[in-house]
Amino acid sequence: MPEQSVAAEIMRAVDAGFDAQLQLSQELVRCPSTRGQEASAQDLMAHAARDFGYAVDMWHIDPDEIAKHPGFSPVDVSYENALTVVASWRPKNPKGRSLILNGHVDVVPIGPEKMWTRAPFGAEIDGDWMYGRGAGDMKTGTVSALFAMEALKRAGYRPGGIVHFESVIEEECTGNGALSTLVRGYKADAVLIPEPTGETFTQAQVGVVWMRVKVAGIPVHVAHAGSGQNAIEACIPLWSALHALEDEWNLPENKHPAFKDNPHPLNVVISQIEGGDWTSSVPAWCTFEVRVGLYPGVDPATIQAQLTETIAKASKSHTFLANNPPEIEWQGFLSPGYEVPEGTPGEPLLDRCHETVFGAPLGRRCSTALTDSRFHGLYNQTPSYVYGAIAENVHGFDERVNLPSVRRVTAAMALFIADWCGLEKI
Predict the structure, then answer these.
(1) Residues 6-19: pLDDT tens digits?
(2) So what's the architecture of 4-205+338-425 in CATH?
């Protein structure tokens, strides 16, 4: 921790810059950066970083360049507008430890807009809350990393070590944006990711696998429905089998130690479904997609094998599917979980920074969701710390983030950067 007077200067600098921080956060939330539409958000972040005086590296993600990395997740969409932004501060004579600040600008779809009470991309501020898709997950967090750095400069300092600010995409579906920074060579002594953690520190997180299942049927006129094979209804026993596997994974004796107190840490969710061509025809096809969680330390290939076996076994008990087995495709997440190793130096430092700002100890959590921390944590053996503000309705209607919480977390991050990297007077 910097000495008390310097820490106070930095916290005052966060407050002084917070209106500008909110303005950029609103601009970013107003970019409807769903998958394939993230370019405007990345242009905004690159422009902001250049205005702040950082060297900016911006490039198109080439799936072929990252496909051989073990952290790669397969994709079946265009990467024509898939951009990564890294803004770097490099002191002339680096003396402190290096750091990566990582955030993502991609967001999930809004769902039916009529279910929102506010404009999904309006970035409306009402009292202590900002509303909008991505306001919590995690555009205000991404901007807060940039403004934590700016607070140091506003207080008259710059980091004594190299800092890379990464604005990435694909966090919500593959992680290939963060992976692209690894493959391009960006590394550091620690990583800090301001995901919305409710002002707690994430000790462990699950991995995720996405699976697509294609089921065939036999179409006939509904007047003779019994002579056909309904592909949609044939999916039902497959779903039941997948949920039985989910129940097995969540048995107390099968849980990862970090999740022993969570009654249901792993979720199997039938997340998308489409099928059939005509209301008066027995459906000839059905495709459904599944999101599956897995414990840290479990190889995604092991989960793929279990899922494949489960679908095959359930199909054998179905008259039609036994001879016409479903097809399985893997697209999107093939991602292991991550647990922060014990004894890394950044964790007690984050404790101290949080307590200085909040006046209370930093809590801990084990997350049943996934973040990009796994890449540096697993493949570079670099401790990756996930810590951020309070947000509500993430991935839901009327998503919102608590602005006083954003301010406090920004101050704690600035203190972390100051101690971890050291300071040099401007």
Answers:
(1) 999 999 999 999 99
(2) 3-Layer(aba) Sandwich (3.40)
Strands (E), 177-320: 191-193, 200-205, 207-216, 268-275, 285-294
> What are the sequence ranges of the domains in the chain?
4-205+338-425, 207-335
Question: Residues 134-169: pLDDT tens digits?
Answer: 999 999 999 999 999 999 999 999 999 999 999 999
Rounded (10°) angle between helices 4-16 and 140-154: 120
Classify domain 207-335 at the CATH topology level. Alpha-Beta Plaits (3.30.70)
Task: Residue count of the chain, please give it.
Answer: 426
Q: Evaluate whether 4-205+338-425 and 207-335 have a shared fold.
A: no
The interaxial angle of helices 346-358 and 403-421, nearest 10 deg, is 130
Residue 80 CB burial class (10 angstroms; 0-12, 13-18, ≥19):
exposed
Return the SS3 of 83: strand
Chain-centre distance of CA 287, in angstroms?
Answer: 25
pLDDT per 10-residue tile (average), the chain, 426 residues = 88 98 98 98 98 97 97 95 97 95 98 98 98 98 98 97 98 98 98 98 98 93 84 96 98 97 98 96 96 98 98 95 96 98 97 98 98 97 98 98 98 98 95
Query: Is 74 within 8 Å of 331 (Cβ atoms)?
Result: yes
